[in-house]
Amino acid sequence: MHMADALISPVVGAVMLAASTGTIAYSVSKLKDGLEEKKIPLMGIMGAFVFSAQMINFTIPATGSSGHIGGGILLAALLGPYAGFLVITSVLLIQALFFGDGGLLALGCNIFNLGFFTCFVAYPLIYKPIQKKGISAKTITIGAIIAVVIGLQLGAFGVVVETLASGKTELPFGTFVLLMQPIHLAIGLIEGIVVSSVLCFIFKFSPDILENALSGAKNGVSSKTGAKNGNVSKKKILIGLLLLAFFIGGFLSMFASTNPDGLEWAINNVIGAPELMGQQGIQSVIADIQDQLTILPGYNFKAVDGEPAKVGTSISGIVGGLMTLAFACAIGFVITKLKRKKSCRN
Length: 346
What we know:
Number of strands: 2
Order of helices and strands: HHEEHHHHHHHHHH
Strand order of the largest sheet: 1-2
Distance between the termini: 44 Å
Helix content: 55-70%
Number of helices: 12
Structural class: mainly alpha
CATH topology: Arp2/3 complex 21 kDa subunit ARPC3
CATH architecture: Orthogonal Bundle
Largest sheet: 2 strands, antiparallel
């Protein structure tokens, strides 16, 4: 559901970038008092994991479409909404700058649609309340599936509203929304199952990760349940997630569905093509800048004759995962430095 620049006007792009930047600043301010250094490796590893997982497009049966996980609920459930939002922002920024996935002008829209609706709406209003009576595999599964579906529905509707506000008459509101919502409902159900499976696995072996994100408890003990670490150390869980991230990005990504994603599918069913054409003015200038920055456009080599080489996809998964890991960790370290400076002043 990564929007291209052709879908929005410069004014809408600027407004949404301002909204997303404001949410980033708010998240940083909240974390300056609450981010523990021991959470930084998890931020980086989950950033790499979501980057790699988003490369796996799965087929939606009987539609000719495909989808991939958004990752917002997964990140919020493991890191809390503020750190989760910053990590999904890191993923989307790396994708846009170096892989041409999503436009630079549309970056604010993509951050808001995939990050804000999940971390600050679906997570606190749906996922978190379901865990109030006691976190368990059952509550995690129910909460994750419902929150993912609602978050993705809101994000899909956000895309429609943003194109409407941009004056894209090629995509009539009624027709576009009637195509976007059902296809993203199907995508959300599959993502919800995937996310709940990952969360249940982590909860089984290291429950304090999820409990601390919910309650803010420290030292591996939840203030609600008193559950301690499972039989596997947190360090081993992190190493396992990191290895899985690079396995997904470096190997499984080569077998992703080539069907258009939900957004492309909806656009194609309206105008007969998977994307709007004809960028001009500031859109053209920004597109040129993005072309210069992109090292592996479309997660492949820039100049490849004929069928794209699978090795390019594999390299993209590994390189992108490493870049996201480093960037997300850097954000965490900067925040902890700001936290220490604030403590010294006080």
